[in-house]
Amino acid sequence: MPHSLNILMCVAVLAAGAAAGQAEESIEPQCLTNVRQVTSGFVKAGEGYFSPDAKTIIYQAIRVEYPFYQIYKQPLAGGEPQLVSRGRGRTTCAYFAPCGTKLLFASGHTDPNLTENETRERQQQEEDRRTGRRRRYNWFFDPHMEIYEADLQGRNLKPLTAVEGYDAEGAYSADGRRIAFCSDRDGDPDIFIMNADGSDVRQLTDEPGYDGGPFISPDGRWVVFRSDRKHEGQLQLFAISVEGQHETPLTDEEHSVNWGPYWHPTAPYVIWARALHADPRVRPNYDLWLMRYRVDDGRIAPGRRWRITDHAAADVLPVFSPDGTKLMWTSTRTADRTSQLWIADFQLPKDDE
After folding, report:
1. Which of 43, 119, 140, 205 is a Cys-bridge partner for 62, taking CB atoms 3.0 to 4.6 Å apart?
2. Chain segment 157-192, per-residue pLDDT in tens
């Protein structure tokens, strides 16, 4: 049965984050320089990832003429976005294969009730525009969502999953041999891993609540993910081995949401988005944080943290370029407060010891 995850975060909250005051002297130049916007012309865009050569990005975005996210590819040097998904259905979580000749994304274009769902969503969005209402973020776990492989133009579409239920949030390992993903095939969203051709599917987590957004570490040994298993909607970060062992919480904070973790490709750091939800009268603002980690006795151990952004707008879903010299994320620091992709040159904290 389809269900929704009411996470106290993300796209609707993104725009609201601009209400917070911004410090006179920003901390951002300590790690970020040459900050610039890289997507525009969309109702909203986000969750972008770099190609292996860092010359192209892939992301999800909504245009005025269609109500659901579609997947687009765009050269960083300039050029028009290219649609690579089917153009219909909910889509999400695109990722380039390390070989540079393939990509994956999740799509619900086979939904037999697609036309009806599109009509309903168009009507809702039109009503929101008319009234000025901003809906609370509510991600729908589309039971027709499957993970697909395609070439770089979105052709030669091949399903990598084909079971009842939501399969999405997939990402390749650095060697291209495995894909970590989220699936609710066992009743609620958990973390799974499979070979890049869709074979040898194995379940890594099996806890009540949502486990999702997995990424495999650069050395191929660990998976980092987000979970609301302790309190619905209050996401925290966890790491687990690719064998499904030695699960460890990286954050455990009451009244906070920690989500969207991503590995640094060359050094022992994880970056993520965090906001405090302690006061229900105050809209939380999401900023990017960096954590150093170490491996002790066969487990990931969290270490020192640094706050990376402090903008009055919301900053979420950070990812590094393959060499770690650039950071890309989704932010509402746009002139019109829409969520778009931003990029900056990145350096690790100089005060790390």
Report:
1. 43
2. 999 999 999 999 999 999 999 999 999 999 999 999
DSSP code per residue over 5-24: E--S-HHHHHHHGGGS---S
Q: How many domains does the chain have?
A: 1
- In this prediction, residue 9 carries a pLDDT of 42
Place of tokens 């150093």: 292
In a domain, 133, yes or no: yes
How far is the C-alpha of 197 from the C-alpha of 71, rounded, in Å?
21
Q: How far apart are CA 256 and CA 90, in angstroms?
A: 29
How far does the chain reach from its first CA to its final CA, in angstroms?
49
**212: three-class secondary structure by DSSP:** strand
- 176-204 as b/e, with b when 16 or more CB fall inside 10 Å? eebbbbbbbbeebbbbbbbebebeebeeb
Integer Cα distance of 269 and 264 in angstroms: 5
Return the CATH number at 251.
Answer: 2.120.10.30
Task: Give residue 51's domain range.
Answer: 4-346
Tens digit of each residue's pLDDT (9 = 90 or more) over 94-152: 999 999 999 999 999 999 999 999 999 999 888 888 887 776 666 788 999 999 999 99
User: Which pLDDT belongs to residue 351?
Assistant: 82
Mean per-residue pLDDT pooled into runs of 10, the chain (353 residues): 41 43 78 97 96 98 96 94 97 97 97 94 87 72 95 97 96 98 96 98 96 98 96 94 96 93 98 88 88 93 96 97 98 94 97 70
Three-state secondary structure call for residue 341:
strand
Residue 352: inside a domain: no
What is the radius of gyration, based on Cα positions, of the chain? 19
Q: Is residue 353 part of a domain?
A: no
Contact 257, 7 (CB under 8 A): yes
Q: Which two tokens stand for residue 335?
A: 């002139």
SS3 of 136-194: the string is CCCEECCCCCEEEEEECCCCCCEECCCCCCCEEEEEECCCCCEEEEEECCCCCCEEEEE
